[in-house]
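Quick one:
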Amino acid sequence: MRWLAWTMLMAAVLGAASLNDELNPVRTHPHGAADTAVERLIIKLREAAGATSVIAAAVTPEEAQIEAGRQRVALLAGRHGLMLKSTRSITARMHVMHLEFPLSAESLATTLETLRADPEVEYAEVDQRRYAHATPNDSLFLTQQWYLQNSSTTPSAIDAMTAWDTTTGNATLVIADLDTGVRYDHPDLLAASAGGRLLPGYCFISDSFVANGGTCPGADASDPGDWVTQTDI
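Output:
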């Protein structure tokens, strides 16, 4: 294959808003970040083996089930040495355990393992906030741009979304790219003169046949591609 040597300067893509103006909580809560201590856990109980007893004649069956769930959570905490500050019911079987003493990372792992092994527990998770992460609105992103994904089966994919959680670019940043040329009519590589962000660059090839496009040598990094000419496209 014939290779051409080019240098072109490309401005980084900038989102609709600047870094200072953009409302993106991921910037202060990056992917994978966790609190140093945890004091709330979400517990879902398995179906009770026996019928739920009525707590008081004045309450509804739903309220009785919720109260029975709270009592089961209290017994669960007692079995595993957890001191509860309070509990909050999400459903009759799903409850938030607010612990009296926060758990460190090491204690948390042990506590979750113990709770999940309890026969009365369907699952146990940390009660924590989740933040939406940066994903482009490009309709081809998920279907065709595999190289930007986080894929365990494609090691060459760069997991760009995790990087975008930190920044999506800066208008003052300029990136130099050594490549075999560029087609300025590509929608992702529009020249700055056509409303895009790609700067002209420079062609270092002195042989016009080898260069196969542009004004070489000179400030024109355009190239229709290998073994084709501009008339072919």
